Each structure stands twice: as structure tokens, then as C-alpha cells.
Amino acid sequence: MRAADLGERRLIQLLTKHLYRNRKVLAGAGEDDAALLSFGGKELVATSDIMFSSTHFPNGMKAEHIGRKIAIANLSDLAAMGAAPLAMLFSFGVPTSFEVAELRRVIRGINGVCSGYDAPFVGGDTKRARELTICGIAIGEVEKERALRRCNAKVGDVVAVTGEIGNAALGLRMMLKGIRKPSKLINAFTNPKARISEGRAIAECAVGTAGMDITDGLLFSAGEIARMSGVCLSLEGSRIPISREAREFARKYNINRNLLLDSGEDYELLVTIRNRRFGEVEERVEAVGGTLIAIGRVVGGKGVLLDERRVNAAGYDSLKPR
Amino acid sequence: MRAADLGERRLIQLLTKHLYRNRKVLAGAGEDDAALLSFGGKELVATSDIMFSSTHFPNGMKAEHIGRKIAIANLSDLAAMGAAPLAMLFSFGVPTSFEVAELRRVIRGINGVCSGYDAPFVGGDTKRARELTICGIAIGEVEKERALRRCNAKVGDVVAVTGEIGNAALGLRMMLKGIRKPSKLINAFTNPKARISEGRAIAECAVGTAGMDITDGLLFSAGEIARMSGVCLSLEGSRIPISREAREFARKYNINRNLLLDSGEDYELLVTIRNRRFGEVEERVEAVGGTLIAIGRVVGGKGVLLDERRVNAAGYDSLKPR
Question: Do the Cβ atoms of B122 and A46 come within 8 Å?
């Protein structure tokens, strides 16, 4: 069955059946003009990430992975603010000839993530388009003045990440090379995690942490925190966690380390934490099952240093010719 | 200059300059991973509308009107809930060859609306795409249990609209025919209003009103309220406000009334109000400069009656072949 056979309304009705919801949802997807949620007295966090088949969904990427990826990308932005998810919305552009079954698998991928992170899919839109398009929106809450702002880094802070760098970027390269054999790298790309628990644990410590996810590359994110905080992030290459699998694949295909650190697709968090509080924050992150790995320090100046040499991080940019 | 010359980041920096903001915005567009807003103890309302150049932006539609349209479409969904806007997000898909100047004009249109409705543009995303794509998101708040839900209609209620029906749909037809001469109809299409003040006035009366905007057609919306409330909406054709200009254009081009009432593009609200409270609600709407025009009654049964004959309203559907 094709989308045109069903029409927009019936398609929406079909797609919004059986969505996960919790008691905060007063009106969910397909029920009203807008999503309606009960709310407390905190700070509201809202984010949106949009993806297009021609740019973001490589051949061989399964529909469920597509759904998971757009949902995780949005939740990761909440994680990077230290926010707890409240709800998500998704707006779709669908070619008239697009298979409804395929779209349902996309929604299944989305809904699995929504359920796993207690972030009900409560609304959105569906329209005709030239290519498959998904715009995700995540709404969350965080205690007053606890958000991990990019501008919070201070000289003397420890720079840390929540996990290994480069697995997902190399997983994508493997897929683009036609490699389908299950591996840690491909799994990192197709089944990413959003570091919500880690972000929450750090925010709850209330130590004025700067934070950002590294979906456009570790070095790019380091540059952003440096720029917004008016400081320099000095990283030690030997401390940046890179998996054995990633090292082997990178060696085999001649991918140098800086390129790896400038690649996107990973959803780890990059944070800066006051030196004297680092141990305490690390414990809190470990208590929720995460890790916090120190990879450098915040120093005076600007930009990013890697082993004391200045690096220029462009990051992933979908609009620039590659 | 084309988007590819600038790159995604610089494009975002450029586009998010000089955006309207108010004191509730803690982190706005381009400043952090997500928008951050201070908030009170009310109900949260969130909505998203997505539009694509191939489907939604007819030739001859100016960039600023495109921006205005996507922003109004989203705010209209808040209006239809009786919500006050808090903030908006916009995610863009941009062909690499797209003119940056054109995109700036789109943003100018958006920002004009954001400023006019005190709904700061606080975040979003920009990626490469095959056609110009804009996904808008509006977030608002409404007092507990005051939202105009589609399921609130009760037998005996008065059915009313906030203004003339069909002007914008006919304005679009004029533009598609190549008519460019300024007129009330074209203006209704290119410069629509969201009925936020009217929606707020109605919600503040706390009379358990059902409400919906009529962007997919008056008859379609009537059918939706009927379906969600388990009632029948009985409309009187002679009471539905249609402008002199619309009547003349429709006569000239042989467009019958039911087609007009089934056309989208208007942003008026369709509401149902307890009969004995109608006068009071009407006064409140008039006090904010609006109008409320009774066009029928809620009766037992289901579906929609127009002059006591059953009508089948399909409404506008972008995925269906026309």
C-alpha cells in the first residue's frame, strides 16, 4: 500500500495507534490541534532535529533504525542540557509513492525510543514531499539554573566525555562500504543511545557544568564550548577513549585520528566540570550506570588544543560540499 | 550567495541574528543544544506544522509570505487550543543552490509574526534537502482544564466561527491563475492572522468549549469536532459568513459553496459554546477586537448537516491526488 492510497488523515490515524503514553499526556498524537501536557514549576527545554533521506539515511539503513536515529538525535539534545524528557513530536514529509509499511517501521523505531526514555510521541504533522523527511521535536524540563549551558566552562575545569568516540562514524563508513556484518561499530550507528541519565546526574550535582553532545564531531563541540565560554579546551589525545574495533578499522582504511575526532554520529556528551567536584560528579554518573572520562582541561585563551597543538574543527556540515 | 557558500553553521548564525526575544527566553536560537525557557504552573501546549515548496508554496508567493504562513499555521493551532504562545522553533531543509537572501526573507516573515504574537523564535535546525522545507513548532500555555478540546462539544451548544470563510482559499486560486492585483482575497492568503486573542478570550470564559481551526476546511473541522465529541454539528448555510468579494469570485469561476466550505487555507476558529453562555463569550471576544458568528447548533447523532442535509467533508489532503 502506498501513502496516496490511504490519504493523509487515515495515514495519521494508522501511524498514531498504540503509541506509548504516560499520565502527563492530556492530548496526544492525532487527538487535537496540539499536544497538551500537564506541567510543574521548572525550566522548559525544547529542541528540533530534521533529517532527509537524501542526506541522512544511507542505503541499507533499516526503517526502524531511521526512526530510532531521529528520536535519539533529539533526546541527545535534551541530555546535553541535563534535561529530563517530557514529550516528543514528529513531523513527516512523505513522497506519495512511499510504502506505508516502511513508514510504520519508522514509527515503530521512534516509539521504541519514546517508550524507553519515557518521552511520549504526542503530536506532529504529515505532508507530501519529494523525499522522506522527518522533523523531530523533544520537549523536556530541568531544575532552575541547572542546565548544562555551553557558556558555563571556566578555566581550571576538567574536560570529560561520557563514552567512546568514533564508533558510530566508523559504523556509518562500514555501511557505506557495503559491510553488513554485525559489529560494535555498526551497532553504534544503528542503535545509538541518548545520554539522558548521565546528563541528569550531572545537572543534579549543580556544579555549573558546560555540556554539549558531539553529534557533529568531538573537536567541533569542543570549539563551540570554547567559543561560547570564552576559554580554550586543551585535550590530551592519549586520554580520548577510542575502542579497539575503531582503531583497527581506522588503521585498515587509513583514517587518521583527527578526522575521527572531527566526525559526527556519536551521541556522547562533552562536559566541563569544576576540578574539585569532578570525583563527586563521576560517582553520580557511575551510580546511574554511566562513565565519565577526563580528556583534558579548560585553560585561558580560545579555541581547541589537541596535545598542545591548535586544531581547527569544521565538524559535519550537511550543506557544504564534501 | 548560495547556502553552500556559507555552510550550515554560518548560515544559522546569520539567520538567527536580531531575532525578537522576551525575558522568558534563557537560551534562544543558535545559543545552545536546545531552547531554554522559564515556566509557570500551567498546561503546556506544543504543535508542529511542516511545509514543502513543491506542495505549499505556489509560484509567485513571496519569501516573506512563506515565512509568515508557516508561523501563522503553527500559532493557529495554539489559538485553536485557547493557548497563549510561549515560543516557536523552526527547522529548515535547504537545497544547496538555494539563495541565502531568499532564506533571510523567509526568516524576516517568520520573525515579524513571532514579534507580533510575542512568541520568540528560540531554536531549530538547518540541513540540506532536495526542496525548501520548513517545519514550525509552537509551544504555548493554557490554564488547567481550559483548553478548547475537540471532544468538548455537547448537544445544545451553539456552533460559531471567528470570521469569514473562503477568502484565503480563493486568494490562493487567484494567485494560481496568475492574478496579482492586491485584493482582500489574496491578502487573506498571503497575510493570514492567527486567532490567538479570540482563542484566549474563549478559554478564559471556562465554558467547556470545543475548538479547532479550519485550515483544512470548515466542513472537515466540523466533522472532526463531531467525531471526537460523539455529536452532530448542524450548520445553516445562510449564516456562514462569506465575503462579497468571495461570492463574486466564486460566481465568476463557477465555484460552488460546498467546495468553498471544504477548502483549506483560512485560519478562523470553529467553536461550540454552551447556549446560555454564548452572549457572555461573544462579548469577551468582541472586547479583544474579534467577532463570533453563530452558524448552527450541536444536535444528537453524528457527522455534519448543512441546511439539514448530510455533507461528507474530505478536507484538504496533501497526499491525495487532486
Answer: yes
Whether residue B24 contacts residue B38, with contact meaning beta carbons closer than 8 Å, is answered with yes
Chain B contact set for A126 (CB, 8 A): 50, 319
Contacts of B54 in chain A (CB under 8 A): 128-130
- pTM: predicted TM-score of the whole model, two decimal places: 0.90
Pick the more confident residue, A143 or A14. Answer: A143
Q: Write down how long chain B is.
A: 322
Q: How close B94 comes to chain A (CA, Å)? A: 8
User: Strand (E) positions, B8-108?
Assistant: 25-27, 35-38, 43-52, 84-94
- Residue to mutate among B38, B319, B320, with most A CBs inside 10 A, is B319
B149: which chain A residues are within 8 Å (Cβ-Cβ)? 27, 32, 36
Cα B246–chain centre separation: 20
Contact A50 B125 (CB under 8 A): yes
According to the model, what pLDDT value does residue A312 have?
81
d(CA B133, CA A118): 29
Chain A: residue whose CA lies nearest to B146: A36
Shortest distance, CA A222 to any CA of chain B (angstroms)? 13
Q: A44, B46: Cβ pair inside 8 Å?
A: no
Distances from the Cα of B223 to the Cα of A31, B166, B234, B298, B306, angstroms = 14, 17, 10, 12, 11
Every domain of chain A with CATH number 3.90.650.10 lies at 150-311
CATH no. for A8-142: 3.30.1330.10
pLDDT for residue A12 is more than 60: no
Cβ separation B52–A93 shorter than 8 A: yes
Domain with CATH 3.30.1330.10 in chain B: 9-142
Using pLDDT thresholds of 50, 70 and 90, give the confidence band for residue A319: low
Which pLDDT value is given to residue B279? 96
The residue of chain A nearest to residue B5, with distances taken between CA atoms, is: A320
CB within 8 Å: A55 and B149:
no
CA distances from A106 to A76, A86, A130, A186, B218 (A): 19, 21, 18, 18, 32
Grid coordinates representing B98 are 538555494
Residue intervals of chain A classified under CATH 3.30.1330.10 are 8-142
Q: What CATH number labels B9-142? A: 3.30.1330.10
> Nearest-5° angle of CA A96, CA A102, CA A105?
135
The whole-number average pLDDT for the span B295-313 is: 94
Q: What is the DSSP letter of A266?
A: -
Helices B63-79 and B100-116, axial angle in degrees (round to 10)? 30
Q: Which of A41, A83, A122 sits opposite B41 (nearest CB)?
A: A41
| C-alpha span between A142 and A41 (Å, rounded) | 10
Q: Do B319 and A130 touch (CB under 8 A)?
A: no
Q: Which residues of B touch A77 (CB under 8 A)?
A: 33-34
Q: Which of A212-226, A257-271, A281-295, B104-118 has the highest mean pLDDT?
A: A281-295
Condensed to tens digits (0 to 9), the pLDDT of residues B204-253 reads 998 878 999 998 899 999 998 998 899 999 999 999 999 999 999 999 99
Choose from B33, B42, B127, B271 for mutation: most chain A CBs within 10 A.
B33
Q: Considering the domain B150-311, what is its CATH architecture?
A: Alpha-Beta Complex (3.90)
Determine the 3-state secondary structure of A118 from DSSP.
coil
